[in-house]
């Protein structure tokens, strides 16, 4: 073959659609994110990623359970590259169905503390929230409060507001109590909460509103709900950090993993790495008044105003999933609605 003919063949190959496809290889111009987070919480940060890298982020929003079911049903035909949701309990479900790819990323392993990611790298926390005690400042002094366990004691009879046990946030919290206290003691504690409960509500905001209105004196909520509520209203509410002399405050995450059936795993991993790094971390947590997962990134002034606290770091969040069934049964056994 003459060198000229060779050249022509190469030229025609370059122009063919097949070659364009092959050359793109694993590179996608769009990553598809199945997201259980509210769109307004992620829109700006995803746009920033597009500006920096040229990679568009296409969102499919929905409830965690529904998105996980969809992923399962779509199997290898899915267009999804990343699953983003809240609570380790939900992420654990996705791993149980074998929907997430184990990643070994030095960047992610450095940026995300070990207890806030899955042991095999199948999901990584991206923002942190604490599930803690909120109290009515007109009725309770911080000295009256001490631990999650203490809310089961007689002095809190009729003074506690709870969210329903059906919410994964409470299932993860009780899983943590089982891990720290053992099943027997955890059951006593949760039974005491139920006994002391004045009301059980469908969401954290209703719990906080009831505490503020004096229907009860204390409640257990995720921190950002208080942040949201106090943004528009002045209410007699404050957060208390329990168990500072023992295992610390229960923390959970919003987090993400790369979809096992994704055709752009390498790029999806880069996207998660970007989300865990300095620049993205500053805003990713802040929009929802959460804490950055990356310990090198300072928290916002809004969350800093709540004071410093010792988080529970001895409870690897993978356990929140593993112990979830036990937690649900425990709550049922003490009639926690
Ligand atoms: Fe929430």
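-> sequence recovered:
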């Amino acid at each position: 073959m003459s060198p000229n003919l060779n050249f022509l063949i190469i030229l025609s190959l370059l122009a063919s659609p097949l070659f364009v496809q092959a050359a793109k290889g694993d590179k996608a111009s769009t990553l598809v994110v199945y997201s259980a987070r509210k769109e307004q919480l992620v829109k700006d940060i995803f746009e920033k990623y597009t500006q920096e890298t040229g990679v568009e982020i296409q969102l499919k929003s929905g409830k965690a359970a529904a998105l996980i079911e969809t992923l399962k049903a779509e199997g290898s035909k899915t267009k999804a590259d990343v699953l983003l949701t809240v609570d380790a309990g939900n992420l654990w479900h996705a791993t149980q169905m074998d929907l997430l790819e184990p990643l070994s990323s030095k960047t992610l392993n450095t940026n995300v503390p070990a207890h806030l990611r899955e042991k095999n790298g199948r999901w990584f926390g991206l923002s942190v929230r604490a599930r803690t005690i909120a109290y009515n400042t007109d009725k309770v002094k911080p000295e009256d409060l001490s631990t999650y366990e203490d809310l089961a004691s007689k002095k809190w009879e009729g003074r506690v507001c709870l969210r329903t046990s059906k919410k994964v946030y409470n299932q993860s919290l009780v899983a943590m109590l089982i891990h720290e206290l053992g099943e027997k003691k955890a059951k006593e504690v949760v039974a005491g909460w139920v006994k002391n409960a004045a009301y059980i509500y469908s969401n954290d905001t209703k719990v906080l509103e009831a505490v503020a209105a004096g229907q009860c004196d204390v409640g257990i909520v995720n921190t950002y709900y208080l942040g949201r509520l106090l943004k528009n209203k002045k209410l007699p509410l404050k957060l208390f950090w329990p168990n500072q002399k023992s295992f610390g405050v229960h923390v959970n995450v919003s987090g993400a993993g790369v979809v096992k059936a994704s055709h752009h795993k390498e790029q999806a991993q880069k996207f998660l790495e970007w989300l865990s790094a300095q620049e993205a971390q500053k805003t990713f947590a802040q929009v929802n008044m959460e804490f950055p997962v990356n310990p090198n990134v300072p928290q916002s002034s809004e969350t800093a105003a709540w004071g410093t606290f010792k988080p529970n770091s001895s409870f690897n969040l993978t356990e929140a999933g593993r112990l979830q069934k036990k937690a649900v049964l425990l709550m049922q056994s003490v009639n926690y609605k």
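Residues 86, 222 surround fe (iii) ion (CB under 6 Å).
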